[in-house]
What we know:
This protein is mainly beta and about 600 residues long. It contains 8 helices and 36 strands. A hairpin with a 2-residue loop joins strand 31 (about 515) and strand 32 (about 520). The termini are far apart. The model has no long low-confidence stretch (mean pLDDT about 90).
Amino acid sequence: LGPTLTASPGSVTGRSWIAVSFDGVPEAELQRQSEEFVCDQDTVCRDARLSLWVGMFPKGVDRAPIGPQPEWKAANPPWLATSPMKWKPLAVASGRADFFLDAMHDAALEFVLFSNGTTWPIELAVSNVVEVVDASSPKHVRLARSRSTSEMVVSWSAKVRDATAVVRWGAAPGSYTQSAAANLSTYSREAMCGPPATTHGFAQPPWFYSASVDLSGSAPRGAIYYVVGSDATGWSPEHSFQVPEAASSDATLRVVAMADIGESSLDGAQYHWMEPFAINTTAFAAEHLAGRGGSASLVLHIGDISYATGYASKWDAFLDQVEPLASRAPYMTAQGNHERDWPNSGSDMVGTDSGGECGVPMQARFPMPVHGSQDQGWYSFDQGPVHFVMMNTEMSAARGSPQWAFFDEDLAAVDRSRTPWVIFSGHRPMYSSAPLACGAGDCGHNLADGSWWRDVEALLLKYQVDLCLWGHVHNAELTCPLANGRCVEAPSPGAYDAPVHAVIGNGGQSLSRFCVGECCCSSVDPRCEVMCALVPRWSKWRMDRFGYSTIEAKGVSELTINFYADCLGEVRGLTMGTCTEFNKLMHSHTITRKRDAETELIF
C-alpha cells in the first residue's frame, strides 16, 4: 500500500497547530541517505545524512524536482518547482510531526512526504487537504506615520480584492464613529527581478490595503480603537493605538529601535534562512509599547525586515510575528540589502541579496511617507521632540544626488524650537568596528558600504544631528561623538559635539562577533586584550548578543539610548537552552544638551 500521511484537524484557522502523522515508510526509503544542510531551530546548522522529510505546501502547486540551482544566489533546497513553506526532517518510518500555522492567506494546504533528501527529493505520499477557514479575512495589520501630522496610515493584507474595504475607528472600544476607504494594490511575479523570487520561491501575493485615520479631532495622546475589513470579507479583531505625540520641545518620546530581524517558526521546522532568536526580540520589544506595560509609541525597523529574500511565505510569517508591535504603534522601516539589492534594478549596490525581490514585496507591505516613489525609500517625520530622517543606504547619497539633496533641504528646515533632537537612520552603517580591518587606533568611514559617507557626514555635522542608528552588521555597538573617524569633545558641557553612532543589527539574524578566532572583545563578555587592541578608539561599547534598543527623548535636554539582550547565558548565539536571564538591560548612554530659551544649542 505504501506510505500514508494524514493531517489533523482537516479544518483550521490561522495560528493553529496541525498534527501530521506518517506510517508505512519502507526501510529502504529511510536508508536512502543524502548529504544535506539541516538547521535545528534552537541550536546550530550542520551537515546531516538525511532521507525522509515532510513539507507544507499550498494545495495543488507544482512539486516537480528541479535539482540544484547554483545561479540562484540567495536560494536553497529543497529543490522543487515550488519551495515548501516549511519542512521537517524525519528519522523514523512512522510517527508524527507537528506544524504551527501562522495567520496566512492560503485557503488550502497539503503536507507531502519525501525521501532521498532535499537535493533530488522523491515524493512518497500526500496528505488530505487542510482547509484554512479564515484565509480570506483581513490580517497582518500595521501602522505608519503619514506625511500629514494629523493622520495615521493603517495597512493590512487580504486574500481577495474588496473595493468596499475600510478602516473604522473611534475613541472607545467597540464604538467606531468614523471610517475611511482603503486604497488597494498588489504585484505580480513579473514585477520582481529574478530567482528565487520569480521561480520556486514565488507565491501569489495577497491584496494590500491602506487607509488614513484622521486624528485632527482626537484628544492628544488619546486612545484610538479600530478594525479593518468589510461586511463582505469580514472584520479584523479590534486593535488600538495612542495618538502620536505632536511635535513639541516639551514632550517626552519613547521609541523601540531594531534591525536585521527575520522570523521564527514556533514549531521548530526548517525554512529559508532560519532566525530562531527573532521572535524573542519582537516579543520582548512589544512589552515596551503603550498598552502592553510600557509607554513607547513608535517602532523603527532599520532594514533587513523579514529575510524572505525571494521566499514569499516568509513575509506572511513575519507580518504575523510583528503584528503585536505594528498594530499598536507606527512601524517605520528602512530598506536593507536583503529587501532591495539586485543588479540593474536601480539599486546602487550591485549584489543579489534581495533574492530577486528588488524591493517590490517590502514596498507593497510597508508604504512609508516618501516624497517620491516608494522605491526611493528616504523620508522624514516629526514626533514629540524628535525629527526623524530615514536613509535608503541601497541608493546613492553622494553630493548632488536626489537623496543627498533631500537630506540637505530637509535638515535645513528642521525647527529646533519644536523638535530639538534629530535622529538619522539607515541600514548600512557609516561606522562599524566589526570588520576589524583598521588595526589599532582610529578608523575611517565604512566605505565598503557607501562611497558617499563623507558627503552624508558633512550634512550630519552641518545640521547638528544628534544620533545615528544603523543595522546590517549583526551586533550592537556605540561610538563616541564622531566626525571623520575621530572622537569629538564638546567645547563646553552640554554643547554640540558630533553625532553618536549606534549599530543595532542584533535583532535575529546570525551574529557578527567581535572576535578573531577565540579571542574576543565584547563589552559584556570576558575580554581578550589581543583582540581589544584592534578595536578603534571611537568604539565605546560592543555586544554580540541578540537584542533590541529603546530610545527616550526628554524635552530639550536628554536623549538616552538603551541596549537590551534577549538572553544571557546562551552559547555564542546558538541556543536559548542555557539562558540564565531574559530581556536584560545591558547598557545605557545619555546625550545631554544645554540650550537657550529658543532651544538653540549653546556653544
